[in-house]
Amino acid sequence: MIRLAVRVRREDAEVALAELIALAPSGVEEVDLGDRVEYAIYGAPGELPELPDLEAAAGDALVEISTSEVADDWAERWKAFHEPVQIGPLRVRPPWADGRDGDIVIDPGQAFGTGGHHTTRLCVELLLDLDPGGPLADLGCGSGVLAIAAARLGFGPIVALDFDPLCVEATLENAQINRVEMEVARWDLRTDPAPAAPTVVANLLRPLLLQLRFAEPPDVVIASGLLVAEAQEAADHFSAVHGLSEERRLESGDWAALLLRRR
User: Fold this and answer.
1) What's the pLDDT at 261?
2) Burial of 222 by CB count in 10 Å (0-12 exposed, 13-18 middle, 19+ buried)?
3) Least confident of 67-76, 154-163, 251-260
4) Fold classified for 2-75
């Protein structure tokens, strides 16, 4: 098994990912490296995209391409990185971890998270600040952690959107596993406004957060996917463009999340 990794600048990550998915529809692993993002593809040597195709897909965003051999037991060792996460009253775990009543069970596949990333935890913490109830949109739903957590907290109806078709598939499957009803759809937030919802959770990279448009102005937005150094810029942008004022900011490691409310 070969792991082929492409590293791009963080500000170019969304565009590069969209192009890479077209070359590797079976799944792309994402690794956060701070100011860079690494996307990795696994396969036998003859199954992987050709190097010129990867270079063309990443374009000017490309930082580095590398290949490495992966041990035969990589699939089992990969599971060890996903452990149960406790966030307030909610416990999120992969299906192979020991279970408890009421757990949110998230099968991440090989390209999605189970709630352990700083930005996901921060978003859930800010959701716990809100009075539950009413429609909610999860923009960039990934494996569906935030949408399912919101449903468990009492929000609804819920719509979960992502550009990656594998994320849409994972969210649908995880919603079924957790017996949560929601609408899940593939959506390009770079070209189409987010659907109307009074509460929006957007765990996205900075460039896409700053491009967001809304079919109707939301009352509350939880915005994450931001480095600490990017949080003030995002807060100023949402205030000036969308009329949303920062109510609370949380930080964990190098990451930040904002709770923004309409003035």
Assistant:
1) 97
2) buried
3) 67-76
4) Alpha-Beta Plaits (3.30.70)
3-class DSSP state for residue 10?
helix
Minimal CA–CA distance to 261: which of 83, 130, 173?
A: 130
The tokens of 220 are what?
């509350």
Residue 47 region, left (φ>0) first, then alpha (ψ -120 to 50), else beta?
alpha
Mean pLDDT across 137-145? 92
Nearest-10 crossing angle of helices 13-23, 51-58: 150
- Domain residue extents for the chain: 2-75, 82-262
pLDDT in tens, 216-246: 999 999 999 888 889 999 999 999 999 999 9
What 72-77 contacts at long range (C-beta under 8 Å, 24+ apart), as own/partner pairs, is 72/1, 74/1, 74/42, 75/110
CATH number of 82-262: 3.40.50.150
pLDDT, mean over the chain: 85
Round to whole Å and give the CA distance between 63 and 70.
22
Cis peptide before 198 (omega within 30 of 0): no
Residue 111 has pLDDT above 50, yes or no: no
